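BUG: 3D viewer hangs when loading the predicted structure for this chain

Environment: internal workstation, default settings.
Expected: structure renders.
Actual: progress bar stalls at 90%.

Input used:
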Amino acid sequence: MVNYVMSLNIVLINPEIPQNTGNIARTCAAINATLILIRPLGFSTDEKSVKRAGLDYWDMLNIEYYDSFEEFLSATPDANCYFYTTKSKKNYTAIKYQAPTYLVFGPESKGIDENLLVKNKESCVRIPMVEAARSLNLSNSVAIAAYEVLRQNDFEALSCEGDLHRLKW
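Structure tokens produced before the viewer hung:
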């Protein structure tokens, strides 16, 4: 697999819902980002529901597993981590993402552990939403964040032509 020039990585800490992870895997395959899963997972990646959500993209996916966030950090000392949380005031579009980029998301039920957020408060960002909303769906949040990084880099290494050749106008 060819690595994306920006070196975009999606980090999921203890994901709980297999369909979300499957959808995120599909997004990662489509944009050539690496998916990093931090154990424990709330499911098996062999489960039918994860693979169904990723459809036929699993062979295009670059995926890594770590047993803890500390193990991940030890293995990636040059990582520029951006922590997505509802507890930040900094808008995700206000950041100039630096390579190698690691977008970090917590488990669906509780988000990133507060101790980790406090240690990394300068790298915490949020996706704006109305105050009454608790949070966005994890797979939607990942797509929003990843495409902002891609947009800032003029979508380099991605085809913007798509299926235009199939149009019969």
